[in-house]
Design goal:
mainly alpha; 5 helices; elongated
């Protein structure tokens, strides 16, 4: 791959991760049932939010591995053992 396209894709992955993280942190505060709740009540007394955050751990692991694979592609190491290992983790 060309260096410019891998950098572009890495930037897109970073922006996607930052956007999803911002949404995960911002959305509970504007949710209708938490309008009058404190931050402690919003984040620590609602088990549903804990499940949501746990569900997004594999998503962020996949994003970091995709970022690493694009780094390997930028250095022309796409068929190296490290990139294959990163693909196995995503799989």
């Amino acid at each position: 791959m060309k260096r410019g396209s891998t950098i572009f894709l890495q930037v897109i992955i970073v922006l996607l991760g930052v956007g999803v993280l911002a949404l995960l942190l911002w959305e509970p505060q504007v949710e209708g049932r938490n309008v009058n709740a404190t931050l402690f009540e919003i984040y620590f007394k609602d088990p549903f939010l804990a499940y949501i955050y746990l569900a997004f751990v594999p998503f962020f692991v996949g994003l970091t591995r995709a970022f690493k694979i694009l780094g390997y592609a930028g250095r022309n190491e796409i068929f190296s053992q490290r990139s294959v290992r990163a693909l196995r983790i995503i799989k």
